[in-house]
Amino acid sequence: MNVDVFAAALAAIREATDVVVQFTSGGAVTDMEEARIAPLDLRPEMASLTTGTVNFGDEVFFNPVPLIKRFYRRMRDLGIVPEFEIFEPGMIATASRIAEETGDDHHRHFDFVLGVPGALPASEAALDFLSSQLPPGATWSATGIGRSHFDVARRAITRGGHVRTGFEDVRYLDRGRPAASNAELVMRVVELAREQGRPIGSPERTRALFGLGERPR
User: Fold this and answer.
1) Rounded to whole angstroms, what are the CA distances from 118 to 43, 138, 143, 171, 200?
2) What sign results for the dihedral spanned by CA atoms 64, 38, 211, 126?
3) pLDDT digit string (tens) for 21-78?
4) C-alpha angle 69-152-154 in degrees, rounded to nearest 5
5) How far apart are CA 31 and CA 34, in angstroms?
6) What is the pTM of this model?
7) Residue 53 to residue 65: CA distance in whole angstroms
8) How far is CA 215 from CA 169, 198, 211, in A?
9) What is the CA radius of gyration of the chain?
10) DSSP string, the chain
11) pLDDT tens, 124-141?
12) Closest to 120 (Cα-Cα) out of 147, 103, 139, 143
């Protein structure tokens, strides 16, 4: 979690495009709290916030409630809208409880990560259950890890959700065919959305949906 790298990436993105910028506050499972939270001082519009501890392969992604609250408060103090990153159903309840306790009225967006060894499988039943547990007015996206990726994307699109994609979660477009870039993965998701008659969200529409205000300058 090198802050200088985050700063350079943020500057380059804002110079080239008006997309919404979201940072991670997760990093690697071995990253310490100070390293995970430091890039937030650059004030991205959004940042991921995992709201619970979860088995992650042979490792443990450690997120006790006091840490979650510290991350959440830092984000809100900086005007950052959290994206609640969900690996298990209890994380939805934790996210809702923390937001309600603070009285914040920001838009609630949840991202379901399915197929991580040790957590929820990338199944239709898991996706349907998670989306049924959200608070009123919330939006959601989903991603499947590895070979489940585009199956999860299709299900999310047909159920009115949104899609997360990129090299963090998947490397292949098809069996034996690696993607050349994140952009190629994004275009595959665009194709899936168009097949289902779903419009593609522009940066302006996304900011309006998530209550982000005007694009940072």
Assistant:
1) 32, 26, 16, 20, 33
2) negative
3) 999 999 888 889 999 999 999 999 999 999 999 999 899 999 999 999 999 999 999 9
4) 125
5) 8
6) 0.94
7) 9
8) 27, 24, 11
9) 17
10) --HHHHHHHHHHHHHH--PPPEE-S---TT--HHHHHGGGGG--SEEEEE-S-EEETTEEE---HHHHHHHHHHHHHTTPEEEEEESSTHHHHHHHHHHHHHT--PPPEEEEEE--TTS--S-HHHHHHHHHTPPTT-EEEEEE-GGGHHHHHHHHHHTT-EE--STTT--EEETTEE-S-HHHHHHHHHHHHHHTTPPPPPHHHHHHHHT--SPP-
11) 999 999 999 999 999 999
12) 143
Per-residue HEC secondary structure of 4-33 comes to: HHHHHHHHHHHHHCCCCCEECCCCCCCCCH
